[in-house]
Structure formats: C-alpha cells, structure tokens
From TrEMBL:
Coiled coil: none annotated. Keywords: Aminotransferase, DNA-binding, Pyridoxal phosphate, Transcription, Transcription regulation, Transferase. PANTHER family: HTH-TYPE TRANSCRIPTIONAL REGULATORY PROTEIN GABR. Residues 3-71 form the HTH gntR-type domain. In the C-terminal section; belongs to the class-I pyridoxal-phosphate-dependent aminotransferase family. It holds the Pfam family GntR. SMART domains: HTH_GNTR. The keyword NADP does not apply. GO terms for molecular function: transaminase activity. This is PLP-dependent aminotransferase family protein.
Length: 454
C-alpha cells in the first residue's frame, strides 16, 4: 500500500465537502466506518483527516469527532500577506509600493489643511466637497452625474453593497448575480437570508436572454453586475450588452447595483449601465482597487428619488463615512494624483499580464491587457481544490473557482478554474518567480500528490 494513499483519501473527502455531501458544521464518519467504505485502514483515514486539518478544511474535537469547517468563501478568497516567502496571487489590490509616496504626501497635505468642520457630524451623510470629488472620479470612467448630491459616501464598496442590499431587500427575497461573482456579494446575501439566482454568462458578460428568463420566472428584487474586468472572469461588457441589460431591467422595473470598482482599468472609457436607467440603478465606484485598500472610500451614485432612503440607511448603520479618509481622497482626485496613480497601475498590470500570458500559454485563460487578474482553466488532470492543497505547501496563494459561485451543481465546473491575481506582490522578480513556479506545478502530473485508490 502506498504511503501516499491518505492524500487521495483527503482529496475524496474534500470533493464531498465541496459537492455538499458533507455540509459545513456536520460530523464526518468515524475512522472505521469510512475506512470500510473506501477499502482502507482507520490509520489511513486518520492521516487524511490530519492533512485536511492542516488545510483548515476540518476540525477535530477529542471525544466528539471530526467536523467540516464553516469557513466563509470571502475569507478563503482574500488572503492577506503573511510570511515574506509567500507568493500571494489570491488578493486583488493595486501594487502598493508604487502608490506609497503619493499617499504619504496626500496624508500630509490633508492633515495640514484639516478644519474643525471635518471633525464633527454633518448633514446629508457627508460633505458636499467629498461628493463633488466622487462625482469627478466617477465621471472620468464613464458615469453620468448631473448633481453631486446624488453621490452618497460609504466606507468601501463592501459597505456600500451591504447597505444597498439591506435597504431594498428583506429575508427570503431573491437577488440575481452573474454565475461567477465576487464572494463578498454571496456573503452579504447569506447574512441577510436572501436567495441567490445565478445568471449564465458568455464572453460578453451576463446573458440578456438568461436574465429575462430569470426575471419572468422569479420575483427578483435586485440584480448585481460587475461590468468591467469582472471578478473573477475578467469579462468587460460592451456598450451594446450594457444597453440591452438596461432595457430588460427597465421593462421589469427591477433594481440594479452596478459594482464598477474596476471601471478605471478600461483602456477606453465605456458608459456605465446606470447611464441608461438612472432611475433604477445604483452605481458603486471607489479608490480601494485603484489607490489603496485602506482608503475606504466608495461613491454610490443613487437615483434622485432614493437619496433620502439610502441616506437614512447610512445614518442608521455608520452615521457617516470618515471625513478624514474622504478628504485624502479629495486631495488625490483634485490634484490629479489619483489619475496618475491609475495610469501607473494600468502600466504595471499590462506588463505583468504579458509575462503571465507567456507563462500560461499552455492553458486556456481569460484576461484583458490591463486587468489585475486572470481566470485560468485548469487541465483535466487537476481540479482547483487539489491544486490549492499543493500550492499552499509551496507558499503559492491562489483562489479556487469554487469560491466564486454558490451553486453546488456547478462544483464540477468551477473547480476546473483558478483566479490568479497579479498585483499584490510588490517585487517584480518575486512576482515572476512565483508565476514560473505555479506554471511548472500545473504542468506536473498530480498523481505524485494523490495516488489512485486501487
């Protein structure tokens, strides 16, 4: 019997967890029972359980048994930098080392000009000067804004999503998302007890016919779309697709949240979907992906009829987003530094995309020249959860395709993808080393890690 048999057992258990056969928080079979089922020994099952515990898949309690961990998809997909030797391809953020001096200068300038007005409460859930800066930022990347009072301020895009979803839905309601989507949306839906309907996509994004079919079949309260450099697929909607989506939503009088956090990466300005249905759409933009994740500044373009309602939600939840951070954002936008930093990040992304495309030329992959990430289809001999167990041991952090979908019936498809983020590593040589190591690993036959049961 191979000493590596327990690794294959661990893979089998992990597959069952992913497919929902062993749901979160449930107790796994006793060692003897599972050993009899799989034709092995209890000691091999113990080794498999120990390996799964190392990878935070299960947790064991003395006298009680082994249970499936209830870790969130959001926690899995966003892995902050840990040890220096890691190659972090899991987190979407700008390459911060290139923004550091501009941010330091903005902090200094803003602090020198700070007034008592910024230190207290304010009406309308935010200062008008900060809303004007948000309007200027959003207009630069394709959004039509007629009045800055229509811009509301939130503490980051996740906060904006949460407030809008809780304002316009209640437990039991149905929302629609792209079939692969940002896990933060799925986490919010789960938190508020919402049902999620995933809409199929093609190379242009959410399919119009599939959206219309879903709207005819379900009482959908809200549709959420990431139209530019979509996370995780990198798809950017064309103008015609955006117009068609807007037409369907207008016919059904359904709310839209347009999460356009990556719109600044478009090589040419593309009109926002919100432009075509301003009375039904909430548009989110911000600085966390362009400048710095710690700069928690998001701008919500809100239908004029809904400004009071959303403002009330902001006041009841956070009262107002910190004026200090928005003053820094205002300085960066008004000085033009924010737009210079955008150009720098796009240039870095373009260079890294070119390197990664060569390294992964043997794989089917999806990206744009200025995207922060790639969506990679794995070869048939790998599935993403198996690959992640190997990459973690080699300090290579990537994100499984399964993190971006809630539908268990899609597990067999989603586990054939990984999302590869290209910008979190500051050092160029370190980045290239990690890319080459990952490419070499994917070329390997995983039988060296997981031997067959027979």
């Amino acid at each position: 019997m191979s000493n590596n048999k327990f690794r294959h057992i661990a893979q089998t258990i992990d597959s069952r967890i992913l497919e929902g056969l062993y749901p979160a928080n449930t107790k796994l079979p006793p060692h003897r029972a599972l050993a009899d089922e799989l034709g092995t020994t209890p000691s091999t099952i113990a080794k498999a359980y120990a390996l799964l515990m190392e990878h935070d898949k299960v947790i064991s309690f003395v006298g009680k048994g082994t249970f499936v961990c209830a870790s969130s998809q959001l926690e899995n997909v966003i892995q902050a930098n840990g040890i220096e030797e890691e190659y972090n391809f899991s987190i979407l953020q700008p390459c911060l080392i290139y923004n550091q001096s501009a941010l330091q200068n903005a902090f200094q300038q803003s602090s020198q000009q700070m007034t008592t007005e910024l230190m207290g409460y304010t009406d309308q859930s935010g200062h008008i000067a900060h809303k004007k800066a948000g309007a200027k930022w959003s207009r630069a990347f394709g959004l039509e804004v007629s009045h800055p009072q229509d811009i509301l301020l939130a503490s980051g895009a996740q906060n904006a999503l949460d407030m809008l979803i809780q304002t316009y839905t209640q437990a039991g309601d149905i929302i629609a998302v792209e079939e692969y989507t940002y896990p933060g949306i799925l986490s919010i839906a789960q938190l508020h007890g919402l049902t999620v309907v995933d809409i199929p996509m093609d190379e242009h994004g959410m399919r119009v016919d599939a959206l219309e079919k879903a709207l005819n079949s379900h009482p959908i309260k809200m549709v959420i779309i990431l139209p530019s450099h979509q996370n995780p697929t990198t798809i950017t909607m064309s103008i015609s697709r955006r117009q068609a989506i807007a037409t369907v939503l207008k016919q059904h009088q359904t709310w839209l949240i347009e999460d356009d956090l990556y719109g600044f990466l478009n090589e040419k300005v593309i009109p926002a979907i919100t432009n075509f249905i301003p009375e039904l759409s909430f548009h989110i933009s911000g600085l966390s992906k362009a400048i710095c994740p710690a700069l928690r500044c998001a701008f919500i373009k809100t239908p004029r009829s809904e400004v009071r309602k959303v403002s009330a939600c902001i006041r009841s939840s956070i009262w107002l987003a910190s004026p200090f951070t928005f003053d820094i954002a205002k300085y960066l936008i008004d000085s033009g530094d924010a737009f210079k930093l955008v150009d720098t990040q796009k240039a870095i992304a373009k260079k890294r995309q070119a390197f990664a495309k060569i390294a992964f030329s043997f794989l089917t992959h999806y990206s744009h020249n200025t995207s922060y990430h790639m969506w990679i289809a794995l070869p048939a001999h790998w599935r993403s959860e198996t690959l992640l167990m190997e990459t973690k041991d080699r300090h290579l952090l990537v994100s499984s395709g399964s993190f971006f979908t809630h539908a268990t019936q899609q597990a067999s498809v989603s586990t054939q993808y990984i999302r590869l983020s290209l910008m979190a590593i500051s050092n160029e040589n370190h980045f290239q080393q990690g890319i080459l190591q990952l490419a070499a690993l994917i070329k390997e036959d995983p039988k060296h890690a997981f031997l067959p049961l027979t």
